[in-house]
Design brief:
GO molecular function: amino acid transmembrane transporter activity
GO cellular component, one term: plasma membrane
Strand content: under 5%
Membrane topology: Multi-pass membrane protein
Subcellular location: Cell membrane
Protein name: Threonine/homoserine/homoserine lactone efflux protein
Number of strands: 0
Number of domains: 1
Largest sheet: none
């Protein structure tokens, strides 16, 4: 695999990442509670990309391409998970009484929860699987084994981790302004609504 091919693949991975989606929004949301939480979310998303690479390498992800039912099932599951995250965010806001910014970061999301949200959101996003199915084979040299696919999966995961980590730093930099009580209350409501809208839209489009 030539260096030019790897660089071209990196460019395509970056294009995939900069396209707004659930993972981008999740990283930004968790970054409100600190850059570290955002980076952990990004790490979970990057691991999710590796899971998809492994699925493609062993042929499991091809089921999405051949079976509309399988694609819809994954899409619905992903949509329902986003709805769950949105509802959970809403109830967390209600439990705080809509008050000031969460003084304890764990009140909004623990590091484990942030990692899990990034991982599950990516694993239940069939568009990531289709990206690997459609794009990766074009960069895998003829006769290469599973290792080449996993290597490209690692490249995609690395690009995702770097981009989303930078995004989390940007989000965390805005904390001083965001943590104003009025702004925090508004963002809690908006984040709950957006996550739910992502989920409902995904479920509806699957039909």
């Amino acid at each position: 695999m030539s260096l030019d091919a790897v660089l071209a693949f990196c460019a395509l991975c970056l294009l995939l990442e900069v396209t707004p989606g659930p993972n981008t929004f999740l990283v930004l949301r968790h970054s409100l509670h600190g850059a570290r939480t955002g980076v952990v979310t990004a790490l979970g998303s990057a691991l999710g990309a590796l899971v998809w690479a492994g699925a493609v390498a062993v042929g499991l992800a091809a089921l999405l391409e051949r079976s509309a039912q399988a694609y819809q099932a994954v899409k619905v599951a992903g949509g329902l998970y986003l709805v769950f995250l949105g509802v959970r965010t809403f109830w967390a806001h209600r439990r705080r009484g809509g008050g000031s910014a969460p003084g304890a970061a764990a009140a909004a999301a623990s590091l484990r929860g942030a990692f899990g949200a990034g991982l599950v959101s990516c694993v239940l996003n069939p568009k990531v699987g289709l990206f690997f199915l459609a794009v990766v084979p074009q960069f895998v040299p003829a006769g290469s084994g599973v290792g080449a696919t996993l290597l490209l999966g690692a490249v995609e995961a690395g690009v995702a981790l770097v981009y989303l980590s930078v995004l989390s730093q940007v989000g965390a930099r805005a904390v001083d302004w965001i943590r104003r009580p009025r702004v925090t209350r508004a963002l809690d409501r908006v984040s709950a609504a957006v996550l739910t809208a992502f989920g409902v839209g995904t479920v509806v489009s699957a039909r």
